[in-house]
Amino acid sequence: MYLSRSEQREFLAEAMELVDSIEEHLLKHESGQSLSELYDGLFRSLHNLKGAASMMEFSDLKNLVHQMETIVTTYKGSEGIDEQILSQLISDADVCRKILNGQSPILEKVASHELDLEETLVGLTLLCERWEENQNSEKFLKAVVEGFQLIKKSEYSKNQSIHMICEIVLNSLQSVRPISVKKKIVVSKKAIELIDKIWELIASGARDEDCLSISTKFRSIVESKLEPSRKKEMSPVVDLQDKQVSVGESTSVRVSIDLLDNLLNLMGELVLVRNEVLQFTDKIHISEFGAVTKKLNLVTSEIQEQMMKTRMQPIGSVLGKMSRVVRDVSKALGKKIDLQIQGAETEVDRTVLETIKDPLTHIVRNACDHGIEIPQERLNSGKNESGTIKILVHQEGGQVIVEIRDDGKGIDKDKVLNKAIEKKVIDEEQASSLSDNDILNLIFSPGFSTADSVTDISGRGVGMDVVKTNIESIAGSVEVSSELNRGSFFKIKIPLTLAIIPALTVAVDNEIFSIPQVKLLELISVESTSFDISSFEGQRVLNYRGSLVPLIELSDYLFGISKKSEYMSLVIVSHENSVFALAVDEILETFDIVIKPIPKVIKSSNLYSGATILGDGRISLILDIAGIAQQIGCRARTISVEPQHKEEIIQSLLIFTVGQDDYAISMNYIHRIEEITKSEISKSGNTNVIEYRGELLPLIGMDVIFDCQYSQNECANLKVIVVERAGKFYGILADEIIDALTTQSDLFPPVNDEAGVFGSIKMMDKLYAIIDPFYLIATWKGEKIATDKPIFDKAHNYTVLIVEDIPFFRQAISKSLETYGFKTIAAGDGVEALELLALHPEVAVILSDIEMPRMNGHQLAQKVRDNRAYDHIPLIAVTSRSDEDNKRLGKESGFDAFLEKLRPTQIVETIKDIFYLKGVA
Amino acid sequence: MLVTEFRIGPNWFAVDVLDIQEVSNPMRYFRIPKAPGFIRGFVNLRGQVCTVVELAKYFKVEGLSSSCMNVITNSSLGMIAFEVDEIGDVFEVDQQELKETPENLPEVYRRFVKNIFINEKKYISLLDIKTISQNILHND
Q1: pTM of the full predicted structure?
Q2: Residues A395-416: tens digit of each pLDDT
Q3: Per-residue pLDDT reduced to its tens digit, A788-835
Q4: B-chain residues within 8 Å CB-CB of A604?
Q5: B31 touches chain A (CB under 8 A)
Q6: A875, A880, A886, A892 alpha-carbon torsion, rounded to 10°
Q7: Are A229 and B139 an interchain contact pair (Cβ–Cβ within 8 Å)?
Q8: Which residue from A539, A576, A581, A811 has the fewest beta carbons nearer than 10 Å?
């Protein structure tokens, strides 16, 4: 049967997926899932694979799969497949993969001289692709070399150009120079492509000379490719990892990665052009043009978002491979290891995915090999016989956090230290000055391995430093902490995507620099003579919120020019938890920037991670915060093994004034802060409004509920604190924004149930009332609010479980409920809530936020409703997103009531109502 | 081989025309603090970041004398603009006219100038500009 090259490629990819699915089913069965559940899927995959194999005349594969199918059929309806047979089937799946990977009839055909040129090229292409997936295999190199030799010896080689290409490619494939496998593959592929092109030309009657240009071009390509290059080569076929998209569904197409990459580059250019146009619009004031650019802006942003999505893949495609790693390692070492994965659906850019694949595998493998003890050892130290490795993935801002935790023996710091001295990573003098955390970080040093004996699985000493470099190469970071006998914890932070990032631009000595937004903590302006700025030994230091941090004057640091000005604009940045301040001449805007690579001679200064072209055509260098941190001697700070339990309640508050009075509002509410002139305010009916993001933003004065007066100064600008409530934006007016503060002080509950206030907080000897913006908005809208203190005399009988990820809200809710006499316990997310529920059978009501990491409110509600032990407990959703969609979803997942974040009286009323309805109270 | 000649200070150089993408007038460049001395900065060449290199400093030979032109090369690694004083003719050089670079010249010079030839009573050093750009863009 004749199939085109692309059809053959399609077949191989699909067959691979089928083998993956077969393996997955078998592994699931092995780990305890019943055969009856898996049988249909398993049988279908086997059957489809057999069909495909026979269609493609892969007789070896067909026979093997047929055997497997027969074995599986005999177990139909039985309890399960015998362990031995199951192992056999799993290794059979490996054999299937091997056949598809190139020990296939195609290889034989290439070797048997009977093929014509075209078919040989098809064979070679497929070989290259399999080779790409098994780069360590010498076998493929040999086969490809054989293929090209075949062509060279054949009559086709009478054509000078074909002969030349064969020679060049064979030279580079067999070269003694260290050429990476990737490059060899790229060169081979190019050669195949060009030979094919030449053959076409000859077939259409071209003369030898015409083809020469192609072979010369090839020579130059090979020369440039074989120079050490830092450009990453991409694999040519999108690996459709998602098993759900199985054969037969035509909702997706395979697109080559090259095409996607080109599109992404063009996307980057488009973003730049968009920025340019936008800046131009600001200069000329033609309203039609303004409208068009607005549209352009929207469409571009949309395209950018969608474009990014095409490159996103669930991280599960990599994590899924971990179960195989864990299985193999635990089998080999006689350990019992339970792998738990959460958040596998989190999506990241495929380039990022490629880069973290190996580091992740390495860490997991290390955890299995060195971390988890053998069952006997575990029992002796009082642990469960089988060890657990937990992988938790979630998204946080523009970053993906991967946490890998094991409950093994942990990392022995003394051992690490001794090993480091022995391996001359550090000397003894240095060793004495290291903190515990520094010692742990030594495992990332090059040439370090703590395994007493090198095993097959890990411990060759080339591990963790590569892990760190790989992750840092994509602007990620890895942190480690460990407790002896309790386990180790790795926290990997990786960016969601690489190509386009939001960044802040700053001016230094007339040049513009960009600072990636993920590194930013805060922007502040300080008087140069301020007490907060001091010098020690010629080094400047800033007193930043109570701690002394390095202060680097960029104009001096970069250009050697010291500038004197009244105020200093400071950009506070952090890298791996170490904080420092950069003084710049001027803080400009934030942009989405497209990162362009820079020559290595410039990158090696460790000051810049790339460059970008701004809207006005200027080039801006992107500051490498990690590199700068390293140069000024910042070290990674400690993180704790159990971060969520040691967390302190930190409240971020914004302090603002209205007339003479100070107020505070929790940062969690604030969407944005805008500055407006009084003339911008217009009236819509009786409401003051301004235009905000193309919509009208109602402005609400604090005097709606508070006894205060706005400044009468007509020229002064007003500040608008934009708050989102139930999907709509509202602006709260303020005269001045004083400061943003974080504090750990306790919240005092409202003294007198004062309406619209959560309580007060003491900061720097001053008491601030923390306002309830939703109450303010509700009052302004004239919504009916229960203000009387509800009486609920049985309150002391009830324990309320509060599930809320933001510490501020958690504290505020529990404080106010406690004033009504309730007992409260609090959890940070759904998972923790379920754990607490198991420990506290007395919980009478659950108050839960909707959006939380790990397990959100809807999922929690479903879990609670599904569990017979809890299904009587009333569930109340307390959220800032009480729009209709969410309400409907909430009802579906089992919530009894849906409340807006934070009106304690309403919460108590609702609890009361629910109990009356249920006849409890 | 078709070459184009250019002058840096008192010295004449030539490069294979196939190795250069274009020649341009001076452009506004953006400084790169703490970069090696021979790097002048970046220019925005139609939306691409292009590194400007002062060849004279790279070779440690006598420097530029006047306002300069840029000779731009492009490879898969990136673009480089080399600053030169003056651009001369484009002409054909025969392989036989090329003479070996004498041994007493500095090592860095001999690495990139493999041959010298004479044209219209000028000694012209034939630059391997491709290797230079690769060295600058990627110095492993």
Answers
A1: 0.47
A2: 776 678 899 998 888 888 888 8
A3: 555 555 666 678 888 887 777 777 777 777 777 778 888 888 888 888
A4: 139
A5: yes
A6: 0
A7: no
A8: A539
